[in-house]
Amino acid sequence: MSQGNVERIVGRLVTDEDFRREFRADPERVVRSLAERGFELTRAEVAALVTLDALTFDRFADALDPRLQKASLRAPVPAPRAAGRPA
């Protein structure tokens, strides 16, 4: 069942903007919280999930049809600037 939970988490990271924002801020807390709430995950899966690049999910989400996205009512958070780029 843990592979199914990994797929659910990855799918949610792609389709749920608020969840993605929480993950970007603290991936370890988010993944451990899911495990504590009953998502069966192996230690290897937890370790792999917390190292995922949140920006990859942002790019993938941007490429998806908006009808597949969960709408967020929160104010947008500015994207981080790349090092060396002027403000």
Write a brief structural summary:
With 87 residues, the chain is mainly alpha-helical.
Give a verbal description of the structure.
The chain is 59% helix and 0% strand. By secondary structure, the chain is an all-alpha fold. It has helices spanning 2-15, 17-25, 27-36, 43-50, 54-63. It is globular. The model has no long low-confidence stretch (mean pLDDT 86).
Outline, from the CA principal axes? globular
- Number of alpha- plus pi-helical segments: 5
Order of helices and strands: HHHHH
Average pLDDT number:
86
Output the keywords.
single chain; 87 residues; mainly alpha
Secondary structure topology:
Blueprint: H1 2-15, H2 17-25, H3 27-36, H4 43-50, H5 54-63
Helix pairs in contact: 1-2, 1-5, 2-3, 2-5
